[in-house]
């Protein structure tokens, strides 16, 4: 029973030293927060389950490697950062699929009947999204991370700051630099952004 009361950092150390039960305690201690965080971003129970499991596969792998783990006193923040990266990866792969497939379930041409939008607007919007994703990939990692979390995962600046382990001011600064850099890249690449 005494093990259940131990702080996260000690449980992590004990797990790294070979006590497998310590990870089970950590998972049980934080699973509702981690699961809830993932679900709040993806809004799908099956996807949440997958990402939750993948998160702990990555946690286990990283802790077993010992040299790659740098907790800085915040196990939960570290795990949420891993989950956030997996959510971003999932979002990227899901968002690419509709742009590359033309099936009965999803067809650009099925949108023609929508009187509020025409095919030209759809194609322009898709091309702009493709162009922006390419440009975002060219940003430095910390700026790209903030843009992805803010605009694609719709996270608040405070949530981003907590997950990345920096202050809100640093997060805002990274976003400002990212927007400046994106504007420069848009001009340099002659990308048209409809208003």
From TrEMBL:
<dbReference type="InterPro" id="IPR013324">
    <property type="entry name" value="RNA_pol_sigma_r3/r4-like"/>
</dbReference>
<dbReference type="InterPro" id="IPR013249">
    <property type="entry name" value="RNA_pol_sigma70_r4_t2"/>
</dbReference>
<dbReference type="InterPro" id="IPR014284">
    <property type="entry name" value="RNA_pol_sigma-70_dom"/>
</dbReference>
<dbReference type="Pfam" id="PF04542">
    <property type="entry name" value="Sigma70_r2"/>
</dbReference>
<dbReference type="InterPro" id="IPR039425">
    <property type="entry name" value="RNA_pol_sigma-70-like"/>
</dbReference>
<keyword id="KW-0238">DNA-binding</keyword>
<dbReference type="InterPro" id="IPR036388">
    <property type="entry name" value="WH-like_DNA-bd_sf"/>
</dbReference>
<comment type="similarity">
    <text>Belongs to the sigma-70 factor family. ECF subfamily.</text>
</comment>
<keyword id="KW-0805">Transcription regulation</keyword>
<protein>
    <submittedName>
        <fullName>Sigma-70 family RNA polymerase sigma factor</fullName>
    </submittedName>
</protein>
<feature type="domain" description="RNA polymerase sigma-70 region 2">
    <location>
        <begin position="26"/>
        <end position="95"/>
    </location>
</feature>
<dbReference type="InterPro" id="IPR013325">
    <property type="entry name" value="RNA_pol_sigma_r2"/>
</dbReference>
<keyword id="KW-0804">Transcription</keyword>
<dbReference type="InterPro" id="IPR007627">
    <property type="entry name" value="RNA_pol_sigma70_r2"/>
</dbReference>
<dbReference type="Pfam" id="PF08281">
    <property type="entry name" value="Sigma70_r4_2"/>
</dbReference>
<feature type="domain" description="RNA polymerase sigma factor 70 region 4 type 2">
    <location>
        <begin position="133"/>
        <end position="170"/>
    </location>
</feature>
<keyword id="KW-0731">Sigma factor</keyword>
